[in-house]
Amino acid sequence: MASSLLLLTRSRNNLLLSLTRRDRYFPFQSKRNWNSLTKAIPQFRLASSRTLNSNSSKDTILMNMSVIRRQTTSATNSPNPAENLPKKVRSKPKTSNVDPETKKAIRRLTFISVVSGICFIIYSGRPFKTDRENQYKDLDAFTAWYKRLEGRTKDLFHFFTEPPSDKLLPDQDSLPPPPSPYTLVINLDQTLIYSTWDRENGWRTAKRPGVDYFLFFVANFFEVVIFTSQPSYVAEPILVKLDPVGVAPYRLFRESTRYVEGKIVKDISKLNRDLSKVIIMDSNPNSYSLQPENAISVPPWKGDPNDTFLIDILPFLEYFVLFSVNDVRQVLPQYKEKNIPAAYAAWEEQWKEQQQLEWEKKLKQPKKGLASLVSAFSSGQIQEQVPPYKHSLMQRQMINDEINNLYRDYKRRAPEIQQMYESSMENLQKQMQESMKEKRTTIWELITQGPPQVTMPDSPPDQDSLQLNPLQQPYSRSP
């Protein structure tokens, strides 16, 4: 009985305490409703005290509490709901925290931007000062203005989606004669190198097995161009370490690519070279999608130390020069989606057998007249002659041996050659800087036309002194 009275007393005290905290438990009460509620509290106290003194039942206490609930509920049902909201919750006029001076500055900036945009649009439709204006002479004023605006807008986007020039390489007439009329364009990423990144070591770059010998070898047969889709500020430091002496003197970067249908494309038609003599080696099919008939598909290299593709492909590349192929686009499509080193090795074996059969057939043919008389006296010498195709193979082997000897000498003299090349490049850079000073361009020309084209100096780095192109004698052009 004592414990029950104690619990009832605590419940009464807690209820009275909760009723007095109107901000916490009755946040939507107005002052008038609060007064009505406070009038009900003494009645509750009286009822609860009578109940405790008379040891009433639990049902009586619940009945008294229901009375309090009805009174509080009627007090909250105010005809004006807004009066039930506390002062902090009542609607107030929205005030901005922005300083008035800042608002004025924003308005002025917006006005200046709109006016500047309108003026720029109007100014972009001005007449051209070149022969380009002739195509608008038959149009009315508004249509001609719109066409000029459209043309200049395309020129603006052209800077971001097209190469800076239609001639990415200098004219061959202004350069020393190359080893052959063929140009080999080589990709960098996953073709010659492979880059990885981890949190412990950061970026690390590995060279594909045989890349040093590969570059030195093809530099004796082709005009070599390394063309990467990486920006120059990313790829140039890698190329300096990969090719410190400039075995491949021509290097093109992301700035020289095109952006076609959401893909980065290397348009080799802008190399300023005959496409019938251009070969591109790339591990990304999107890169040569415009000229697939000029491409050699390279298996992407991702760090395999046992990879031998660069060495295995050399006989196939050598074939174009030794056999003097008129148009590479007639040969390369035959090896599409094939293992090129294996397919070419099989073709060469078949070609040897065919040449041997033709040679033997030629020896067995009967000769008439004076030819038969001469053959009678020199029949023994004829049998000892070597077929022409073997002469070509022997010549190729001699060239390969010479290149191997030069490569060993090149590796031995690498520090000296590197120093010579760096000094030559410093002189070249100084000449180009002096030429740049003479070229002046406006901001609009820089945006729409790209950087000015600088004329190459008359004295490029001396490749002969570096022993990079040692083969001066012409090759045998027929098997």
Automatic annotation (TrEMBL):
It comes from Glomus cerebriforme. One of its GO terms (cellular component) is TIM23 mitochondrial import inner membrane translocase complex. Residues 72-100, 448-479 are annotated as: Disordered. One of its GO terms (biological process) is protein transport. Keywords: Membrane, Mitochondrion, Mitochondrion inner membrane, Protein transport, Transit peptide, Translocation, Transmembrane, Transmembrane helix, Transport. InterPro entries: FCP1_dom (IPR004274), HAD-like_sf (IPR036412), HAD_sf (IPR023214), TIM50 (IPR050365). The keyword Cytoplasm does not apply. Residues 177-320 form the FCP1 homology domain. Essential component of the TIM23 complex, a complex that mediates the translocation of transit peptide-containing proteins across the mitochondrial inner membrane. This is Mitochondrial import inner membrane translocase subunit TIM50. Belongs to the TIM50 family. Component of the TIM23 complex. Pfam families: NIF (PF03031).
